[in-house]
Backbone:
């Protein structure tokens, strides 16, 4: 059967869609270019017309995931009526809301990242976060410095610390998901709630704010996400 001719950007997005689904379902290392070609219904030449390697396609998957989170919060970031603290809280809250809405997808992602063979994927995701989300957080911190809300010496370093704190949550998130798999959602919720509240307290001190100023996740949201993942 002849393949249907499609516009380049449509075919490229289809390849990213198929790769993301396969990476999440069976792992990055276990997925071959042949698997992606078959799932997307393209020729080998068609694949290499858009991507030079599986690694480049992985970067495109990660780039789109992070870009989606940022685009989803564009109204917050561009709102001139919000001060820096309001933007920071709402930006992280919006990101969490997105995770709740994509709970099944996030479950697949966390399960995949637990596999030792997907260590490369995890490090690429961390790097992508620094590259794409880092500048967003830097601008918010810079705004807070100008507004005299944040008391920090370097906005870029603070942004990097924020991302690093979030990245190190991966281990506890994996443990919580294992608890969900065992049917112990209450334990998983308590683990993540404790972790999130500790992160909020750390960032509050880092930015020189009054206790309780940072609130990324509203009460009850963590349970909602974990129930959706179960």
Residues:
């Amino acid at each position: 059967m002849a393949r249907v001719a499609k516009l380049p950007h449509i075919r490229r997005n289809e390849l990213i869609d198929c790769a993301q689904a396969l990476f999440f379902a069976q792992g990055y290392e276990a997925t071959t270019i042949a698997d992606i070609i078959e799932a997307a219904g393209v020729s080998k030449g068609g694949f290499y017309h858009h991507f030079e390697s599986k690694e480049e396609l992985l970067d495109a998957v990660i780039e789109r995931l992070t870009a989606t989170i940022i685009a989803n919060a564009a109204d917050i970031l561009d709102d001139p009526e919000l001060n820096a603290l309001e933007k920071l809280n709402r930006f992280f809250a919006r990101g969490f809301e997105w995770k709740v809405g994509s709970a099944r997808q996030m479950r697949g992602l966390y399960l995949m990242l637990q596999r030792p063979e997907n260590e490369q994927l995890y490090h690429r995701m961390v790097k992508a976060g620094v590259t794409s989300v880092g500048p967003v957080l830097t601008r918010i911190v810079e705004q807070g410095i100008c507004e005299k809300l944040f008391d920090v010496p370097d906005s870029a370093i603070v942004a990097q610390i924020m991302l690093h704190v979030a990245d190190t949550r991966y281990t506890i998130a994996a443990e919580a998901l294992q608890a969900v798999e065992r049917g112990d959602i209450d334990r998983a919720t308590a683990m993540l709630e404790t972790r999130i509240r500790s992160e909020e307290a750390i960032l509050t001190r880092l930015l020189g704010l009054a206790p309780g100023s940072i609130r990324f996740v509203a009460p009850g949201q963590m349970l909602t996400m974990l129930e959706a993942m179960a």
Summary: The chain has two domains: 8-52, 58-229.
